[in-house]
Write a structure and sequence with these properties.
α1 packs parallel to α5 and α3 runs parallel beside α4. The chain has five helices and eight strands; from the N terminus they run βαββαβαβββαβα. The chain is globular and about 50 Å long. The protein starts with a strand and ends with a helix. The strands form two sheets. Strands 3-2-1-4-5-8 form a six-stranded parallel sheet. It has a two-stranded antiparallel ribbon with strand order 6-7. This is Isochorismatase.
Length: about 190
């Protein structure tokens, strides 16, 4: 096993069309995430799935035990791939994620998933603060329109702003194509 792990964050049914909290570009992001997962498995990287459930039954989405809170079929975990259940935006908070990474000697994280402006932001900043080298695959992440002070911010702008902020000080931001090319190059050189 390598010292790299792929963290697949909250690619769950409620974020897709027909779900309780659909995101712009969820299908494309999941397709790209599936490609990244395939490459990580081939490379022998640890693949960890993170699944969010809200503790409250009146939550707007990801209600415990619901179909919407289940991992989307495009990115299902394989037997032996850990699934970390979380109840907060930050995937490290009150979960076994850090212990899983430390037990395997992981030094580098690749992050994909949803939502760019919440859980991807949260895990990326926390991982960097813990000292991991972090890469976010931007087109394997999805977001949604948000509103502040009566101003509607389109999902594409939300996503771009958060990727720009993370890329400034917390992570390397790459496309699926660039990430896969770099992964292929490393495996060819080995």
């Amino acid at each position: 096993m390598t010292k790299k792990a792929l963290i697949v964050v909250d690619i769950q049914n409620d974020y897709f069309p027909g779900g309780k909290w659909p995101l712009a570009g969820a299908e494309t992001a999941a397709d790209n995430a599936a490609r990244i997962i395939g490459a990580a498995r081939t490379a022998g990287d640890l693949v960890i799935h993170v699944r969010h459930e809200f503790a409250s039954a009146d939550a707007p989405f990801f209600i415990a035990g619901s179909e919407g809170a289940q991992i989307h079929p495009k990115v299902l975990n394989r037997p032996g791939e850990p699934v970390v259940l979380k109840h907060f935006v930050n995937s490290f908070r009150e979960t076994e994620l850090k212990q899983l990474l430390d037990d395997k000697g992981i030094e580098e994280l690749v992050v994909v998933g949803s939502m760019s402006h919440m859980c991807i932001d949260g895990i990326t900043r926390a991982a960097s603060d813990f000292g991991y080298k972090v890469t976010v695959v931007h087109d394997a992440c999805a977001s949604r329109d948000i509103e502040f002070g009566g101003v509607l911010v389109p999902a594409a702008h939300v996503h771009a702003a958060f990727m720009a902020a993370l890329g400034f000080a917390y992570a390397t931001i790459v496309s699926t194509g660039d990430h896969l090319a770099a992964t292929e190059e490393k495996s060819s050189a080995a």
